[in-house]
Amino acid sequence: MSAIAAEPRAGTLTSEQLKQQAAILAEFRKARTTPETRLAIIERAAQHSRFTLKKVLEVLVKEMNRPLGEYRQLFTKVASESIGRRANPVNLQQVSELRARVLELSQRDGLTKEMIIANSDPALKRLKEIILVNREEVLTAQPELVKKREALEQLGQQWEKCVTRLLEDLEEAATTQTQGKPGPSKPHDQALAAGVASTEETTVSPPPSFEEYLKKEEEIAAALAVPMDAATRAVLAANLQLASKIDPEEARCVLDLNLTRNLLGLAPVQIDLALTAVARDHSADMERLNFFSHDSPVPGKTTPWDRAKRVGTTASAENIAAGTLDGAVANLMWWHSPGHHKNMLGQHARVGLGRSGKYWTELFGR
Asked: What is the pLDDT along the chain (366 residues), one digit of tens a residue?
């Protein structure tokens, strides 16, 4: 879980407002054992300023990171033990057929969201049922997991309220800024042909839900317990080492992507810090200038290829999303968006994932 990235141009608060902000944060930290008080403080922070609300979220995230990490680690351990006790082997022929169904569809011309929902979603769901350990089975096997899960729920309720209010405020600010301005620029035809998904394909993000966030954590943990080839494990291990150098939610987004690729028999993509910097910079530009497009109005940054070249690297495809602070939700939005879907399952070796506020950029490289 991650705090929201710093705004490129943070609004200025008066000295009096900064004092009020400090008082709100101090009160929030002090009320750690009284969740109802904290929920009320979150509402006060939202009324005070977006910047105060972001600070509150940062405090929450720091408190949640350790117990969430411990929960995922234990869940993976129990899931691995459950896999070892399986009586029946995985039906490899069925796995191969399901993978082929998803990958063949992803390459079709004229792919639509409806086709993904009708065909790829059921196939991926069935793959998870065959390969992954059922989350309920894992929870039943280890009562300690249930205790840790319950302990996370109070913080999760606070996180959900904070993120919901922050997204509402960001959306209101973006709407106000947009009034009287022309619509966002459209991607170049040449860029579309070279692996950039149309901005018009992006799906609407679901409302923030800590329960859904936690279910995804359990799915990720179960997927990490699955036997993998040495090359896949090596990339995941390398990405884990790099995770400390990027936003935790960016790292979670990449991990979720790679575990989906692994379910489908595809090679994982390795984190590229140069592409990450480029992706984060584009997300920051979209937030600061309030546009949503692969084409940037910033001189020298027009296309993804221009932006990659500025830092001495290359890119093969780009995805963008907006409206969430959750990396797994961004992946789900891309999965149901045809052009982004093709990019997620493309023949790439590198990835840079950059977030700023509610804006996301995923830049692939070969």
From this structure: 544 343 434 457 889 999 999 999 999 999 999 999 999 999 999 999 989 999 999 999 999 989 999 999 999 999 999 998 887 888 999 999 999 999 999 999 999 999 999 999 999 999 999 999 999 999 999 999 999 999 999 999 999 999 999 999 888 877 776 655 544 444 333 333 346 776 556 667 889 999 999 999 999 999 999 999 999 999 999 999 999 889 889 999 999 999 999 999 999 999 999 999 999 999 999 999 999 999 999 999 999 999 999 999 999 999 999 999 999 999 999 999 999 999 999 999 999 999 998 999 999 999
Contact at 8 Å (CB) between 346 and 316?
yes
Q: Evaluate whether 269 touches 257 at the Cβ level (below 8 Å).
A: yes
Q: Enter the DSSP assignment of 270.
A: E
CA angle 48, 51, 53 (to 5 degrees): 65
Please give the helix or strand (H or E) that residue 317 lies within, else none: strand 317-322
Strand partners, 364: 317, 351
Contact 366, 347 (CB under 8 A): yes
Nearest to 115 by CA among 18, 201, 237, 220: 201
Q: Which of 288, 297, 271, 339 is nearest to 106 (CA)?
A: 339
CB burial string 227-254: b at 16+ within 10 A, e below: ebeeebeebbeebeeebeebbbbbbbbb
Residue type, 72: R
